[in-house]
Structure formats: C-alpha cells, structure tokens
Amino acid sequence: MSRRLLLAVFVVGTMLAAGCGGDDADSSASTSTSLTSTTTAASTTEPTTTAEPDGRLPVVIDTDGSVEGAMSILYLLAHPDVRVEAITVSGTGLVSCRKGVDQALGLAALGGAPDIPVACGPAETLGGDNTSPASFRSTANSLGGIRLPSDNDPSALSAPDLLASVIASSSEPVAVYADGPLTNIALMLDADPSVIDNITGITLMGGAFDVPGTVFDNPDAEWNIWI
Predict the structure, then answer these.
(1) Please, what's the b/e burial string for 81-103 (b: 16 or more CB within 10 A of its CB; e: otherwise)?
(2) How confident is the model over 5-36, as pLDDT tens digits?
(3) Who's near 37: CB < 8 A, 6+ residues apart?
(4) Stated pTM of the model
(5) Nearest CA to 133 among 221, 226, 19?
(6) Could you read off the pLDDT of 99-124 as tens digits, one per residue?
(7) What SS3 state is found at 139?
(8) Residue 101 contacts by C-beta under 8 Å, 6 or more apart in sequence?
(9) Is residue 185 within 8 Å of residue 35, measured between CB atoms?
(10) Per-residue confidence band for 201, with pLDDT thresholds at 50, 70 and 90
(11) In terms of DSSP H, where are the helices of 111-205?
C-alpha cells in the first residue's frame, strides 16, 4: 500500500465528526451479545469470494450510518487505488439496521458498485448499556433527507460473518475502515482470531487523547469508544 493511500484513508478517518450509537428499536438484526454465538448457518451457504489482485487496496467498511460516514463510503468507492469488498453496518451505532442496510446498498449503487455485499450486526453492545440520544438515530435514519437507489438485497450473512468471510477468502491482506462502534469487528475477531493474519490494518474513528470528549454524560469519552 502506498504512503499516499495510507494518508488518504487516514485523513478520511480522522476528519470524520464524532458521534455514534443509539437505542435500536429495529428488530431486523440479531440481538445476541454472546461472543461465541455469532457464526450463523448462512456462513456455510453463502460463500464470499473477493476479486483477483488488480493493484488496488482491498477494503472492508464497517459504518455506523452517519452522514459523514456516507461521504467516506462514496470517497472510498470512487478512489482509484481502493477496491471496496464489503460494507457492514454497526447495529450498535447511529443508524438502525434496516435503515442502515438500505442506505449502504443505495450508496454502493450510487458509487457504481451495486454488487458489493452488505450486512448488519447485532443491535446490542457486548457489555454495558451506553447509547447515544434517540435524536441522533432519527437524524441518521433519514440520512439528512437524501434519497438513494436501493434495488438490491443484503447479504444473508451477519456482519461479523460477512467480514470474516471476505477477509479470509481474500488473496491479499485487507484494510478495515471503521467509523462507528467496533462491535462487529470485535465479534469477528473473537469468533476467528486467525482472520487478523489477513488484515493489513484498521483505520477507525474513535477516541479522545489530550482533548475533551464528546459524550454528554462523560466529558472525557468519545462516542464510538464509549459505546
């Protein structure tokens, strides 16, 4: 991976505004928080393969459905040095699963890659009950009123299983870009730690060091890490 591309992906991640989480009234995602029960039967019925090496960096995107996250998805889809292999939605993030999947499918279609697999993860955090205000989710679910094309169906896999399948089957190391809570990634790595051997790096939006946080009830915390 070139230094220019590393810088480009890093800049996108670090420039995103903080904000994630929310109470999920959407029941379309699994609500199981068991670290050992994330592998689904679908993982054996829907094999995922990635494209042959073509000089571009293979990337998987794990998003929380924010407006700035949508912009980063479109940026990565359009980047000539990047090949987006999958988009997963964090069920513990801003957007509800149903809305988030619809938006991700629409963004993929808008970005000229309608066949990219899309899936959502569990709607509950792995521990604790930290969430962002319901007003955050309402805004994320509407995506600021933007209308997107959405003619395709989501993957039959859960988000952790889709990430694991794409990364494990890739012929070259995959970069992970995450702009929300890291629940899907945590579940993937807990279910199959060997997947990390085919990950070239993780760029994430999260954390606050030597600066104030953004959480209303915890002035030292940033939303994604707090959730």
Answers:
(1) ebbbbbbbbbbbbbbbbbbbbbb
(2) 333 333 334 333 334 433 344 433 333 333 33
(3) none
(4) 0.78
(5) 19
(6) 999 999 999 999 999 999 999 999 99
(7) helix
(8) 28, 89, 118, 119, 120, 154
(9) no
(10) very high
(11) 134-142, 159-169, 183-191
Quickly tell me which residue has 């569990």 as its tokens. Answer: 122
The residue with tokens 């889809």 is 77
Positive or negative torsion for Cα 120, 87, 89, 151: negative
Residue ranges of E strands in the chain: 57-63, 82-89, 118-120, 174-178, 199-204
* Tokens representing residue 47 in the block: 């094999």
Two tokens, residue 113: 């890659």
Please give the Cα distance from 161 to 85 (Å, whole number).
Answer: 14
Bridge partner list, 57: 82
As a whole number of angstroms, the distance between CA 117 and CA 53 comes to: 18
Handedness of CA 99, 87, 91, 37 (dihedral sign): positive
- Which of 113, 120, 110 is closest to 148 using CA atoms? 110
CA angle, 100 then 104 then 107, to 5°:
135
